[in-house]
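Each letter names a residue; structure tokens follow underneath. Both lines appear below:
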Amino acid sequence: MAGLQKILLILLVLVLVLLALVFSLNNQMAVGLNFLVFETKPHGIAVWIIMSFVIGALVGILMTILATFRASVSRRTLQKRLDRAEQALEKSRAQNDQAI
């Protein structure tokens, strides 16, 4: 089953690379991007679109890593609070058992 998944993943990557190649070959008109402060050198439309997808994917991965890190820190903090509360509860039960 793992071998089939690897084969399917390789085929998916190859199809995506082929689609990107066909897309870039069909969109070779050079355009420059004009921002408020500066203007870029002209490159093919496909270069700009593929670069924006790659940058978007990297930003998405970075945001996911940061969110995962925050959740992990929060989970550890809550786990420590829970452990302290359980210890206090056990201590209180022990004191109640001694009083009875």
Observations:
- Helices lie at 2-26, 45-99.
- The longest helix spans residues 45-99.
